[in-house]
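Query structure, 120 tokens:
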């Protein structure tokens, strides 16, 4: 059964909205909720996998401060007064960089992408 939809257009003929029969809309919403739950479950699994991955901090005392880098991720580097503060800053900066890279990749990919785990 094909979905019977109608398009609303502006005065230039550009589509601006869609009219969908209510029963078909309800089915769409139910399918959407199901997929949200499924994706949420996958997201939780990915978070667990991500937490189990170890990164390497390269640290060095430099005068009165500590400097450090994350070996595996270019651009993740910090400077702090103590080694403990440096390690905490590197963790925060690494997490932010990974989240930024993820959002950037998804945005660049656009619609219709898939996420595939890759093990080394």
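Result returned for the query:
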């Amino acid at each position: 059964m094909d979905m019977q939809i109608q398009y609303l257009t502006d005065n230039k003929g550009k589509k601006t909205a869609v009219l969908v029969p209510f029963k078909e809309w309800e089915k769409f919403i139910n399918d959407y909720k199901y997929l949200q739950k499924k994706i949420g479950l996958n997201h939780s699994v990915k978070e667990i996998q991500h937490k189990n991955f170890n990164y390497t901090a390269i640290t060095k005392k430099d005068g009165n401060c500590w400097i450090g880098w994350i070996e595996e991720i270019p651009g993740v580097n910090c400077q702090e007064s103590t080694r403990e503060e440096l390690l905490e800053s590197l963790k925060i900066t690494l997490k932010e960089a990974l989240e930024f890279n993820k959002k950037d990749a998804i945005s660049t990919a656009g619609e219709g992408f898939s996420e595939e785990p890759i093990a080394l």
